[in-house]
Amino acid sequence: MSEITVVHYLNQFFAGIGGEEAANLPIQVQEGPVGASRLLQNHLGAQGKVLATLVGGDNFVNEHQDEALDAIRKALRELSPAVLIAGPAFDAGRYGVACALVGHVATHDLRIPSVAAMYPENPGAALTRDVILVPTSDSPRDMDRAVAQLARLALKIGTGGELGPASTEGYLPRGIRRPGVRVKPGYERALEMLRAKLAGEAFATEMKVVGYEQVAGAPPVKHLQNATLALITTGGIVPKGNPDRLVRGGAKEWYRYSIEGLDRLDATHWDCVHRGFYIETVKENPNYVLPLDVLRQIEGQGDVKSLYPWFFSTSGVGTAVLDARRMGEQMGSELRAARVDGALLVAT
Amino acid sequence: MAEQHGTDNLVVLLGTPTTDSSQLYAQTVTEGDPTWAGPLAGIALQLPVYHVLDDEVRRQFTANVADEQLAMAELVLEGEALSEAVKAVREATTPGGEGR
What we know:
The complex is a heterodimer. By secondary structure, chain A is of the alpha/beta class. Chain A has helices at residues 37-44, 58-63, 65-79, 93-110, 143-158, 166-169, 186-198, 280-284, 292-300, 321-337; strands at 4-11, 28-31, 48-56, 83-86, 114-118, 132-135, 228-233, 237-239, 255-258, 270-272, 306-313, 342-345.
């Protein structure tokens, strides 16, 4: 097989140029493999050659998209590779978006097949169907496996080969259905699946339903009497007048409000903003959602040491999982830094 | 450092905060930078590497130094998990594992 030509896109970090301080770097064209491209070249072996590494700072590509993509387009026209490879970006959001944009320019604008790699929940993964996406873990520890898979798929599409279905080739499904004829008709396949399921055997579904993520519970607080507890609510409790303009649903932000010196939340100073339940009762008595009154009693009895002087609030309805996770991590890191022992999140 | 002093009397202590970052850096100084971003890509120094909160390491500090330098970190970091994560890389990648 003759050698195929490859151009590899990397961000400033994986090209070995620098971290955040170099994130404003404009597009650079470096001859041959640099940084993580050296690993790609190892995996391509004698079957492929990295002609050049395109490097872009994560901020630059995201904030100056037109200028960055013009530079990418120009470089790809001059280099004219058989295939464009981008990443792996893992869970790095800006980098993932850049990989998707660069791949889109290659394949959509210039008809150069492209393959990129990133964590399936990276925002870049939802941007384009033109780019074949190899799923990775969220950590660069997955580098070697991911780059090996990038190289394998690149060699296939770079030589004009047809890729099989996502599940057998190891890329993310793009929602593209191709007509074809199965060996067995649907009713036979369905009965075989049912039989296998009843017998407790493995089977591959043809209609994948995405399940809920399992989140492991936190370990119990060992000594409540020595513990500082924080209050968190997704019930949309806000000061009267909603000064931060918390939205009633689909929230992307959370806010913190002081409860220092307060024995309870009274209806003249507090309000409820939420489109997911009947809020009139809570407007009359906000302690139903944020039970400060009861917790102050418990604190007074010495059953917990203290309450964290701020509570965190958002409206928990219609919020995207990724936003919810980010907000949870932000809250968690503040509580961890403040040495809070546990948090109480009352359901609404 | 490894070029200047050789690798025979060199031990690497990590102060990394997560198991993931601990394993990344441990791999970097044993079998080479797994991200291939830095100068140690493809270079297997095979240095013995420990987390600074590892009991084996901690015992070798005087109480004053340990209290001053490590006490805060011990409160917020999972020392045992970090030590185990580094140990797993060390034992898989350095010849003779523990005994060097």
